[in-house]
Each structure stands twice: as structure tokens, then as C-alpha cells.
């Protein structure tokens, strides 16, 4: 697992997104950015499902169970249904996550206590920041179960990568294919970058070969 994390961190999300395109897979989501500090993270997914309070739902603090179940290097992924009016994550949760060794938090919606999370050094990727509490407005429906994140089904055991360009989810069943393809794409682009640095005209470097590099040669 540590080897897979090392391989992903040597890449970037654009290369992984290109690999998904080449393999005909989905996984890239839009509108999620780091609100705390610049970071490139990759890790196994731990899920949290949030929703509206409903009768007879056990009263637990959102995210607490997933934090306790996580291992060092895991990334918490929170289904918050794109809500921007109320937070789906806060500073005490960030503090507990850092103590647990969690690498990052990714929320499909708004979060709060961004300054505190930044001071703690925890990368928090989300849609927006808002000071409004979740108390009485949001409840945890489940953790460590499949969730929907920006229309994409994400399951515990999948992987997620995030950096300055955004967030990518990698299906556990296709991890090796995705990472291997991304490594090939990244290596080819690094050669192109070296040619540009050496003074080769951009019109020569980014010609037909670049435009065709994501085509499946087997088709």
C-alpha cells in the first residue's frame, strides 16, 4: 500500500485523469479545491455519509466513527450532497484526524474552521468555507459504506488523489491499470517538458503525437 501511495505521489491528478480517459473510466470530480494549504495527497478512502436529521437516527458526532476506524495515511471522503449553507466538517474533527495520522479530508460541500485546519497542517479539500454549524442541520447516516460524491459512487477501499488541479477517485478494482497507465503518460509528458526546456519549438513538441496519446491502440 505504501508503494502505491509513493507511485501516485510521484504523479499528478492531470496524469491520472488522462489515464482514466484512456481506460474509459470515470473518477474525476469538479469544484473541489484545497481550502487549507497547497498539498498533493493520495490514500485509501474512508467514507462518511451525511444527510438531513431523521427520527430515530443514532446521535453521533459526524465523522467520529470514520476517524476512529482509519489508519495512518487514509483519506476521509465525506458525502455532504454539495451543500454550501452548512458545514460538513470542523476543527475538532481535523484535530482528531491529525492525531490519527489521516492524510487529508475531502468533502462534497462546505466546511468550517478552515484556519484551524490550516494551522494543524491538515489538507482539507471542499467546495466552500462557511461558519454555520452542522448541529441540528446535518446528521451522519453511515460510515464505511458506499457513498455518492459529486454523482460518483465511492466505496471504502477505493483510492483518492488530490492536488492543486483537483480530486480524482480510483476504483480499487482497477488501481494497477490506472496507476501504470498514468505513469506512462506522465513519463511521456516529462520528455516533452525536457524538449521544451531545451529550446525545441512548442509546435513540434505538441503536435499530432500529443493529441493522439490517449487513444487506445487496441481499437
Straight-line N-to-C gap: 32 Å
Number of strands: 12
The biggest beta sheet, please? 10 strands, mixed
- Under the CATH scheme, the architecture of the domain at 28-161 is 3-Layer(bba) Sandwich
* Average pLDDT taken over every residue: 93
Global shape: elongated
Q: Helix count, per DSSP?
A: 8
Instruction: Tell me the radius of gyration.
Output: 19 Å
Looking at the chains present, what oligomeric state does this protein adopt? single chain
Give the SSE order as H and E letters.
HHEEEHEHEHEEEEEEEHHH
Structural class, judged by helices and strands?
A: alpha/beta
Assess the beta-strand content as a share of residues.
25-35%
Unreliably modeled segments: none
- Provide the CATH topology of the domain at 28-161: Glucose Oxidase, domain 1
Query: What's the helical proportion of residues?
Result: 25-40%
Short description:
With 219 residues, the chain is α/β, with parallel strands linked by helices. 33% of the residues lie in helices and 28% in strands. The strands form two sheets. Strands 1, 2, 3, 4, 5, 6, 7, 8, 11 and 12 form a ten-stranded mixed β-sheet that branches. Strands 9-10 form a two-stranded antiparallel ribbon.
Task: Give the topology, please.
Blueprint (H helix, E strand, L loop, with lengths): L1 H8 L3 H11 L4 E2 L3 E2 L6 E11 L12 H6 L5 E13 L3 H10 L3 E8 L2 H7 L3 E3 L1 E2 L9 E5 L3 E3 L2 E3 L4 E5 L2 E5 L4 H23 L4 H4 L2 H4 L8
Parallel strand pairs: 3-4, 4-5, 5-6, 5-7
Antiparallel strand pairs: 1-12, 2-6, 3-8, 3-11, 9-10, 11-12
Amino acid at each position: 500500500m505504501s508503494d502505491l501511495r509513493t507511485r501516485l505521489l510521484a504523479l499528478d491528478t492531470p496524469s491520472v485523469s488522462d489515464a482514466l480517459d484512456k481506460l474509459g473510466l470515470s473518477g474525476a470530480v469538479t469544484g473541489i479545491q484545497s481550502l487549507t494549504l497547497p498539498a498533493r495527497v493520495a490514500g485509501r478512502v474512508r467514507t462518511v455519509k451525511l444527510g438531513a436529521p431523521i427520527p430515530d437516527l443514532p446521535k453521533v458526532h459526524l465523522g467520529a466513527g470514520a476517524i476512529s476506524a482509519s489508519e495512518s495515511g487514509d483519506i476521509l471522503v465525506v458525502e455532504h450532497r454539495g451543500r454550501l449553507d452548512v458545514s460538513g466538517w470542523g476543527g475538532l474533527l481535523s484535530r482528531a484526524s491529525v492525531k490519527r495520522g489521516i492524510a487529508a479530508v475531502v468533502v462534497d460541500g462546505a466546511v468550517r474552521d478552515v484556519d484551524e485546519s490550516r494551522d494543524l497542517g491538515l489538507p482539507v479539500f471542499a467546495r466552500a468555507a462557511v461558519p454555520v454549524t452542522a448541529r441540528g442541520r446535518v446528521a451522519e447516516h453511515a460510515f464505511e459504506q458506499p457513498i455518492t460524491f459529486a454523482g460518483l459512487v465511492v466505496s471504502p477501499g477505493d483510492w483518492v488523489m488530490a492536488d492543486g488541479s483537483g480530486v480524482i477517485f480510483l476504483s480499487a478494482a482497477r488501481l494497477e491499470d490506472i496507476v501504470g497507465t498514468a505513469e506512462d503518460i506522465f513519463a511521456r509528458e516529462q520528455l516533452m517538458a525536457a524538449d521544451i526546456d531545451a529550446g525545441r519549438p512548442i509546435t513540434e513538441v505538441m503536435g499530432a503525437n500529443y493529441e493522439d496519446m490517449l487513444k487506445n491502440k487496441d481499437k
